[in-house]
Each structure stands twice: as C-alpha cells, then as structure tokens.
Design brief:
This protein is 23% helix and 31% strand. By secondary structure, the protein is of the alpha+beta class. An eight-stranded mixed sheet has the order 5-4-8-2-1-11-14-13. The protein has a five-stranded mixed sheet with strand order 16-17-18-20-19, covered by helices on one side. Strand 6 and strand 7 form a beta hairpin. Helix 5 runs parallel beside helix 6, helix 7 packs across helix 9 and helix 9 runs antiparallel to helix 12. The chain starts with 6 loop residues before the first helix and ends with a strand. The protein binds zinc ion (ZN). Zinc ion binds next to helix 7.
C-alpha cells in the first residue's frame, strides 16, 4: 500500500489534486499497549474453524456498477474445496450491503450475518476433499471508507465518472462478498464488470472479452490466471487513454486520463527500467501471463496485482516531496517503484496474517533501496535507506498480535527496510545477499507465509542462527544498542549488546571507516585491543541499524 503522509501534507495535496479521495488523516500511533480486540476484529482477523475448513479455488465476480446511483449489484460464484466434513463456512460482506440470496445449485442456503461476517450453512455436511460452488448474490450502495476510500464514486477534473477501489485494510468485502482474509487465495479469478458504455473498466488480469449488453451498458470480462489477494482485486472505471510497450514478451499497458497523456508517457517511461532492475534482482515478473499495467487513479497509489494504480501527479519523489530527505528520492517516481515492488513482495509472496505485514511493506520498502542501487549505485542506496531512520518510532514491535486484525505501525515500512539492510551487513557478502534475495522470491513465489517461514529460510540458507536478530528487530520495540567502554590507559574497548532478546549476537564493524574491524558482540562483555581513541572510534551505523552508547 502507499504510505501515510502527515495531515499537513494531506491538506497541501488537496490543493494540487483536482480530484481527491476522502481527506484522510493518518491513524494515531498509540504508544500504549493495544486495546483488546473488538468482536469485529476477531471476526475479520481470526482464521477460525469455518475459514480453515475450506480452501478457495476460484471466484467469478459478475457485477453491474451504476455510477449515477452509486449502486452495485451482482454475484460472486465462489468455488472451494472442503478440508474436512462440515456444514458451515465463513464469508464476509460489509453490513451495509444486502445479501440477496446464496444459491447452492438450485437450493437457497440459510445464512447468519454478524457485523461484516456471513456464516453460510449447508443442509447436509460437505465432504472432505470435495469441490463445491455457491453463488452469492448481493446488492447495495457501498460506502467510501478507510484510508484509501475502499470504493469511491468520483468525478475526474473534467467532470466525468471515475470509480475506483482501493480496499487494503478496510477489506475487499467493502464492495464484494468473499472470504476476506490473507491466508487463503483463489487460484484464479474472473471479474465481469458491466458499466455504462461510454466508460472503460481496467482491472486485473487480461481482458477476455467486451460485450455490448444492448441497454447502454457494456460488460468487461477480465481473466486473472494467478492466485490473487482479495484486496488486490480492483475496479478502475473512467475515461481512460491507453498506450503500451513491451519488455521482451512481457506486455506493459498504461492508462491515464486523456488530458494527462503526454505527462504519463514521459513519467511512465520509468516502468521499464524498474521492471528490468526488479527482474534482475528478484526474478521474472511473477504475473507475466496477466501482463503489467499502470493505471492513473485519484489517490496516490496501490499495488493491485497486474494492475498497479498510480496517482503521484506524474512527478518524481512522493507527492512532489523528497520523501527520505537525503536528495535521492527526487531521482525517481516513488509510487511507480514502491507499488510495483509489491508484485514480488505482497502479491507473489504474501504475509498470511496482517500481523506479519512487514512481509509486504518492509520488503517492498527495501526493494526501493535495491532499485536505487541498481540504477544509481550503492552509495545512493545506502544514503536512501538511512534516510528512513527519521521516520522510525521504535515505540512498539513491528509484528502485532496474530489473528485479531491488528495493523502494524508504520515502522513495518522503514524499520523493516533498515532491518533488511542490517541483515545484509550481517551476511557481509554482496554476492551471497543477491543470491539470497533471488532465492527468497523463488522459494515463496505465490505463497502465503509467516515471519517464522522467513526466519527459517535465512537460517537454513546461511547456516547461522539469525532468530535472535529477527526477534529483536521485529518482535521488540527497541533496536540493539552497542555499549562501549573505553579503557584509554591500556588501549582497549569493552563492548556488549544491550538488547531485550537474551541470546542476541550480531557482528558489527567498528574502529575506522577506512579500516573496519568486525567484532562479534554478544550480551556479555568482551574486550578489543585498539589504538583508536574514544573520540575517533566509529561504528558502521549506516550498515547496521543500531544505537551506540559510548562510556
Ligand atoms: Zn506498500
């Protein structure tokens, strides 16, 4: 997802954007312990028995969107495989939308609604391993809500309809019925969108057909041939101009408002070198059959799979700002790079639970640094990642409580990236680091994983026990502090880590920048003989995200 801006910048952005999503203020970052989860958070966040008893196979979402009435109606045909004998499954649809009927063949199923959840009951147990299919018919006036709008019925600057969805966090069930969680994805999906014929819908996957319905509406049929997160499923309905390019046999399609065609052609030229860099480091673009699209929208951007959305004003930086404040951000368009990085980190490799969302955001933010290194060199990349330090709060752990729909703090982005840069320094071998990045993307391609899987992968690949390092950075609020005690008389320095994790051990480079020495501190005192005086003694804090205490 895109990042949060200060409320001041959001007010500024209102001036620049003729069309804006609902004015958003960033959520307040609480320094206290999170409050007990609400019933809604448990229903939404828990992978409970009626979610875990089935495995999604496919969705066929067939809807009609009326821009004048701001009304949606249609059905989702949900196919799933039972993992045990059972009579009930759990689906989600926002309470303000109507369940018209749920059909199982010709049988109308009973259901119970509780907040945003719909429990669907079958007349007889569905057998383990059987494939099943239901048609979930619904309709209503979906509400704009959440940081990205969820779904918004807007007008473009020329006064034409512009309807977009961006529902990460809020949940895809804000506009369509589905199994609204991150652990289970469909294998593929059909998305059929009927809209007034003067408009165009650009969604995920390939356009499989376009049918004039004869009543002033045209239906766009999109075929998504890969697993997809619910929140990535996206409508972009408007008056779009289209241009295209190719990178080898990967299709790259671009959509913008007619007035912005020249600006888009200039700015979207960054997509190709971005794609080349990411493919070089992270392996082939994961959704090649579906192609890559970049689509103009009225909010700043979102990583919708194979249909990345863009609203960064056709300018470098992030909303015209030097995002990390160290003179590197203005060399590229933050939204093109960050949101496209999610195709590997978030869309291909997905965190199974919102508590592990750094798997999406920490990695996508680190991918920005990889992009900078590929295009502008290592020095800029190091400057860029360290620019993120000013945004880190270290007030609560990056990983939140599992199963209760608790979104991690912003540290998941910046501290997540700084942690990965630290991990690179621990490995201290550029060739090996690159091989690890590539192997990580290959190993977890199209998988939904937990932090435990990431840790096990790095431990196994490196033959090291990196678990205490992961734990300190991700499961504790504070970063490691290197405590130094100088004994000037005998030319030595004592050192140890001050950390919450007891068995924490991590190498670090110290001494003189021109001639680093690698020491292996633990939480016990050790001593190093050195002729470097206290005032000249340096620690490589741009390679390792740590505090240093000099005594
Ligand atoms: Zn993101």
């Amino acid at each position: 997802m895109r990042l949060k801006l200060s409320s001041q910048l959001i007010r500024l952005s209102l001036v620049f954007l003729a069309v804006v999503a609902t004015a958003k203020t960033p959520p307040q970052q609480s320094t206290s312990a999170p409050s007990a989860p609400s019933r809604a958070d448990i229903l939404r966040g828990e992978y409970g028995p009626w979610r875990a008893n089935n495995d999604l196979l496919s969705y066929d979402l067939d809807i009609r969107v009326d821009p004048e009435k701001k009304f949606i109606s249609g059905k989702n045909t949900i196919r799933f495989k039972m993992l045990k004998d059972d009579t009930r499954i759990q689906l989600d649809l926002f309470a303000n939308l109507n369940v018209d009927k749920i059909l199982f063949g010709s049988t109308e199923l009973k259901y119970t609604r509780e907040l945003g959840t719909v429990f669907v009951d079958f007349p007889a147990p569905l057998k383990k391993n059987s494939a099943q299919s239901i048609e979930f018919h619904y309709s209503g006036f979906p509400q704009e809500t959440g940081r990205f709008g969820g779904i918004s019925f807007r007008k473009d600057p020329a006064g034409r309809h512009w309807i977009t969805t961006a529902c990460q966090g809020v949940g895809a069930s804000v506009w369509w019925p589905n199994k609204d969680q991150q652990q289970d994805e469909v294998e593929n999906m059909r998305l059929r969108v009927a809209i007034p014929s003067a408009l165009t819908d650009v969604s995920n996957g390939r356009l499989a057909g376009k049918t004039d319905l004869g009543d002033g509406y045209t239906r766009y049929d999109w075929a998504i041939s890969y697993p997809i997160n619910n929140y990535c499923v996206s409508l972009n309905i408007g008056h779009y101009e289209h241009f295209s390019d190719k990178l080898g046999d990967l299709t790259m399609d671009f959509y913008c408002l007619p007035e912005n065609l020249e600006k888009a052609k200039r700015q979207f030229a960054q997509a190709k070198p971005m794609m080349e860099a990411f493919q070089q480091y992270f392996g082939e673009y994961p959704f090649k059959r579906d192609g890559y699209k970049l689509i103009e929208v009225p909010y700043s951007g979102m990583e919708h799979q194979s249909a990345v959305t863009y609203g960064n004003r056709f300018a470098n930086g992030y909303l015209e700002r030097d995002w990390t404040g160290v003179g590197v951000s203005l060399k590229f368009d933050f939204i093109i790079i960050h949101e496209s990085a999610h195709e590997w980190f978030g869309n291909s490799v997905t965190g199974s639970d919102i508590s592990d969302m750094w798997i999406q955001e920490g990695w996508a933010t680190y991918a920005e640094c990889v992009y900078v290194e590929a295009l502008f060199g290592k020095e800029d990349a190091l400057k860029y990642v360290n620019g993120y330090k000013s945004k880190v709060k270290n007030q609560q752990p990056i990983i939140t409580t599992r199963g209760v729909n608790q979104t991690p703090s912003q540290d998941q982005y910046f501290k997540g990236a700084l942690f990965l840069n630290t991990l690179r320094s621990v490995i201290d071998n550029d060739g090996q680091w690159r091989r690890l990045l590539r192997a990580y993307c290959d190993r977890f391609k199209y998988n939904n994983i937990m932090t435990e899987d990431v840790v096990a992968f790095f431990n196994q690949q490196t033959g090291k026990n990196l678990t205490p390092i992961f734990d300190q950075y991700l499961r504790r609020a504070a970063i490691p502090a290197l405590e130094l005690r100088f004994q000037e008389s005998d030319g030595g320095v004592s050192y140890r880590w001050k950390t919450d994790v007891k068995d924490f051990a991590m190498p670090v480079k110290v001494g003189r920048k021109t001639d680093w020495r690698i020491i292996q501190p633990t939480t016990e005192w050790k001593t190093l003989k050195t002729d470097v005086k206290k005032e000249d003694f340096e620690v490589a804090t741009d390679l390792y995200y740590i505090d240093v205490i000099k005594n």
